[in-house]
Amino acid sequence: MKDKKQLYAITKPFPQKFIREAGKGRYFVPHAVLRQRLLQVVGNYDWKSGPEIIADGNFVGIYGQLDCIIDGQSYSVRCIGSASATEDDGDKLKAAESDAFRRCAMQLGLGLHLWTNSGEWFLSLDNESEDWKPNHIPIKKLSETEPTKVKSSDE
Asked: What is the pLDDT of residues 24-65, one digit of tens each?
């Protein structure tokens, strides 16, 4: 129980430079950055998506499942991802799968600080040399050359 290096590494807040504003007081880290952190911390992982969720003949979302090993313990997390009704069918599927991945990753602690609207962070470490306090809220304005709005959920 005391050696949770991977758990702390996966829950470590992302640096400010990777955080983007999604609008309406919501923030995100680009999909590729989430996957990089996951690979960096746990190594290989298994991602499965499907089946699709259809309601009244319309695509509503998709199930996603993330399997990995953290600190020697096997985890399997399953979540539902959704997409905007304004996207075309292909983009809806991609956006929903990305949303499902983000939600599964959050269940493991990856990017969890972005879901705490208050900015409060309760995890602590014995290692005081690490700064584990998130500073993403309020978000700083990004430079003109950096993206500031989400166009699709798999950016």
From this structure: 777 888 889 999 999 999 999 999 998 988 888 888 899 999
Cα angle for residues 155, 37, 41 (degrees, 5° grid): 160
Exposure string for 2-23, b = 16+ CB within 10 A, e = fewer = eeeebbbbbbbbbeeebbbbee
* Structural Rg of the chain based on CA atoms: 16
> CB-based contacts of 104: which residues, under 8 Å, 6+ apart?
64, 65, 66, 77, 78, 79
CA distance 8 to 31: 20
Return the CATH number at 91. Answer: 3.30.390.80
63 with 53: CB under 8 angstroms? yes
In a domain, 144, yes or no: no
